[in-house]
Amino acid sequence: MGVLQLSDPNTTDENATIGFLQDFVEKAGGCAVIDGGFATQLELHGASIKDPLWSALCLINNPHLISKVHLEYLEAGADIIVTSSYQATLPGFISRGLSQQQGEKLLEKSVKLATDARDLFWESLKNIANHTYNRALVAASVGSYGAYLADGSEYNGFYGDDVDLNKLKDFHRRRLQVLVESGPDLLAFETIPNKLETQAIVELLEEEDVRIPSWICFSTIDGVNAPSGESFADCIQVVNTSRRVAAVGINCAPPQFVHSLVQNFKKLTAKVIVVYPNSGETWDGVAKRWLPSKCFSDDKFNVLATRWRDAGAGLIGGCCRTTPSTIRDLSKVLKKSSVASNGTKDMV
């Protein structure tokens, strides 16, 4: 119901950098809402994204649709919107015939589209009394190396023997620099499948002296381990060494896995727990199609989300195949339950 008064995310104090996200969650009533599936909405609006660039293709062909989707999630009550840069990589753009400079401009554009949508939406509320929104944060999405490969390896963690720590840092470095310089509030490292890439991210944040709060989200196919088969205990141990990573969690995994994972992660780290699962359908990264499986309705998703919050999740949203409808219902139920438990309206 106003601008949250938070610590500066660009402070030189690393503890305050982490505190920025913790403050946001606390002042949101104990749980903040992330937006939902992006590609799902782009396709609904007529975008064709059957391409290795996936939703990043719209940065070239349909940027107005990206803005439209951001606004839909803001209207639905998202407290954090994630940029369209998940599959936007410099090697990916260059492979399409673009120059390095053009690719960097598109990365900048992904952040600008999100921040402009946020600011436009916030401006539209200035004459509306007693609205329940706060000014949202923008998280710049950084997809895994496997997302760039577009071969499904973000869901198995097998990058090949020629991929080592330095290669992963080199892959992420310039994209990270450009995104940070573009001015997002947060960095969202998504669908990380193994310990090696986790280590690369943690070291890179240190080497580049990144002062923007980050989260690292893993994927999982069994609900117990990272896709590589490595334990989450081993992966999170790496995350815990970094004062630049403010949150850790799970994205693009079936909802039925999330509750036990939140409980497990709470035992493994003191960082904010972030979860944004998919709708329950299964993506075949090789065949590039959704496999038939049980899809969770918004009602069931919302019931589960309150359990995730009660188990300790501080940031909750949706990933693939979730929609603004999902986020609208999610926002309502989490805000309502926050008021009931806190007796206040000090929330987003």
UniProtKB/TrEMBL annotation:
Residues 20-334 form the Hcy-binding domain. Keywords: Metal-binding, Methyltransferase, Transferase, Zinc. The keyword Transport does not apply. Gene3D superfamilies: Homocysteine-binding-like domain. Zn(2+) binds at residues 252, 319-320. Its cofactor is Zn(2+). GO terms for biological process: methionine biosynthetic process; methylation; S-methylmethionine cycle. One of its GO terms (molecular function) is S-adenosylmethionine-homocysteine S-methyltransferase activity. The keyword Methyltransferase applies. Pfam families: S-methyl_trans (PF02574). NCBIfam families: PRK09485.1. This is Hcy-binding domain-containing protein. It comes from Deinandra increscens subsp. villosa. The lineage of its organism: Eukaryota, Viridiplantae, Streptophyta, Embryophyta, Tracheophyta.
